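To assess whether ligand presence alters the predicted conformation, the chain was also submitted together with cytidine-5'-monophosphate. Input:
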Amino acid sequence: MKILLIIGGGIAAYKASELIRQFRKAGHQVTPVLTAGGAHFVTPMTLAALAESPVYTSLWDLKDEREMGHIQLSRTADVVLVCPATADLLAKMAAGVADDLATTLLLATDKPVVVAPAMNVRMWLHPATQRNIAQLKADGITVIDPDDGAMACGEFGPGRLPDPPDVMAATLLRIGASSPSPALVNPVADALIGHHILVTAGPTHEPIDPVRVIANRSSGKQGFAIAAAAAQAGARVTLIAGPVSLPTPGGVARIDVETADQMAAAVEAALPADVAILVAAVADWKVTPSPVKLKKGDGPPALAFSPNPDILATLAASPDRPRLLIGFAAETNDVVANATDKRRRKGADWIIANDVSGDVMGGSHNQVHLITADGDDPWEVATKEAVAARLIAHIIQTIHAKTPLT
Ligand code: C5P
């Protein structure tokens, strides 16, 4: 993808360097445009070195109109990203002002525009800025909402630029939604119409007594994001969720369960499915729960564990086996080796492996490996939504390619 990156004049401009690095690492091209304000915070030299591209700063640089005039510059990209977008730049965009290179390009472009505002919290909350944001949204511009947090100016609240991976993911999603390009990271709308996709998500709780359970730290975020992306692509989605406090994504039929046994039964009842994506962190062991609350005075309980059903392995061996069966592997060491072994042992087509030794469980980002019969495909760090979109895009490709599954 080709990204025209307009860098406004705010302290968050320093993050533009990291953003360029991330886009480049993911194989995208970046052409930076630096406003006069932005040039107070980052130098064209830094941006040019990271982007391996000329950096444009002034309308009057573009001497040779035939070679690279402002119209052409605004249209050779797949998307125009304004990051950081200052209050001033947003106001000019909303009013249609074109008094420098950046604003002229924004007025001349026929490509999707994404803005990532970053400013002082009062400036962000000011009715004038909010009015401009509403106008930009009405004009079809994608606005990446700023994060809450401590700001360089010492105040606290909304106005911080989101982290570069989030800005990158939102920008790529915007292109995926509007362009049928092969480098797509967002599911093609309606590509899964007529397909039933089964997703398990979250932890299971195995009761010990009426008030105590054995649990794990799974938040359900990754599985819910996958269910949401599948529904957006037109699939009929059944989401079997362990105990989590997440809203049900639009267009998804959700079945809440507590234990592994209940999850196994719900999966069986939901068959047949074309694709099953088992993301849940199912407890490996259960105990026979005491019907009454265990008393502290009786001393530590001697819990007798027995194995839970392995839903993935059972599904792989079932006559109703989905055509594409995908498992997850949360590992803290030897991630790829363990997941490769798990794929074979459990009979899954793909395993999405992730290293959960950091703060992946409960966090908003994930770094995964797609393990297939062809080997290991490491994906760059991304939000759980972006991982979900990429997985669904991969499923769409596989289903529509009609090639034998790997
Ligand atoms: O063996 P492990 O728990 O690491 O395997 C992880 C994969 O297997 C995940 O896809 C998980 O949803 C699935 N699984 C299952 N039933 C179990 C244990 C794991 O479906 N009892």
